[in-house]
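Final report, closing paragraph on structural work. Over the funding period we assembled a curated collection of sequence-structure pairs, and we close with a single example.
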Amino acid sequence: MKNDIKIQPQGFYLLVGSGRLATHLAYYFSHISIKFKTWNRTESVSILHQYIADKPIVLLAISDDALDAFYQQHLADHSLQVIHFSGAHHSERLISCHPLMTFGKNLYDLENYKKIPFGVTPIKNLQEIFPQLTNPSFQIKPKDKALYHALCVLSAAGAQTLWVESEKILSGMGVPKSAFNSYVQKITENYILYGSKALTGPWIRNDQNTISQNLLALSSKSDSLRQVYEILKEGSYDNS
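Its predicted structure, as stored:
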């Protein structure tokens, strides 16, 4: 696939999907005058084929596991530019524009959407596909996609899973959710400001007595949390 792909100004985008990403993208596009139509699997396939006949730029905001099958079933026989938004999936037939962002149930304001960075493969920048967007972008090599996405998952769902499990146990001890949320918020703010220098606690001080007490307490409550504690503790020494 060439890296000099250009979108014709008179073309339109066909956004396929109905999940959170599709909802956020549709909202963003509608506020910056991008010409697009939408389709999802609750609609007739004949409508999809009518859209395809008009030669749109197809945007697949669907699950990773469905990408190849959807392409083969509906798009492979047409001369179309097809973009997906998966951070992990790679196909020589498709262009990847992964938004490095988490998408919740609520929509964001326009300025937040404009700041979302996109990891692109194999094109050089996002504007080759979306000349209307001013979002920053960076290139991801195909061989790096799996690792890139694994680290994104650890940073997002991985950290959030730890917060969910910790808050659940702390709540049982009588710690207010608001107090825990304030703690998590400040942790995040400090990391953004100071990076690895924000790391603190017994791991960084090498306070072995406190670490031993932590491990003993976790063992009595959750063996999986104890294992995570030990693994992350070793990683913190590498960054201290």
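DSSP finds nine helices and seven strands in the chain. The chain has a mean pLDDT of 93. We thank the funder for supporting this effort.
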